[in-house]
Amino acid sequence: MNLEAIRIVLCRPSHPGNIGASARAMKNMGLTQLALVSPLKFPHPDAIALAADAQDVVENICVYDTLPAAIADCHLVIGTSARDRRIGWPGFEPKACAQRLVEGTAQGAVALVFGHERTGL
Question: Which among 25, 36, 86, 105 is least surrounded, fewest beta carbons within 10 Å?
């Protein structure tokens, strides 16, 4: 299992505190690769403040203009949603999603993508 190959991607995060809280949660799970797509406010002191002991994750954030740029080197990308979709793509429960990401790290970089806090993906 290569946790360094797992990238968490936040698309258009609107509140810098959510960036810091995400970094803190990631660090608790051993994840360190956080990418932001067009953040509204970053860098920002609130991101550092809410990161607590995960300032290193915040300091190493990569910022991208577009989602395709943020996931360009990933061979597996999983998007999250709170709503059922009729797209026809496979859906996963959280445990199966985590297992799929971990298994995917054997082949290289993988990404778990979260949409805008208010509207999602």
Answer: 86
